[in-house]
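Morning run. Coffee first, then this:
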Amino acid sequence: MKKNLINKVKNNWSQICMGIALFYFVTLSYSEAFIMNVYKREKIELEVEYNHLLKKQKEAYKTIITMSKKIDKLKNQNKENE
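And here it is:
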């Protein structure tokens, strides 16, 4: 029985190798697609977070400018009152 199996493997070696290569190719293709999909999803999430932080940064900058103008105005009023 073992000899029979060994002979079948020897006779069909090219087909076995082709099957292994096909399995390997399909596995790599799906793995790459999965990894790229995860990468794209994470990239989109990071871009959304970056845009949100950029918006907050712009709001903070506007607040700083507004507060600076108010402080200058108060300083000028104090100088006029002295």
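The chain has one domain: 2-81. Good start to the day.
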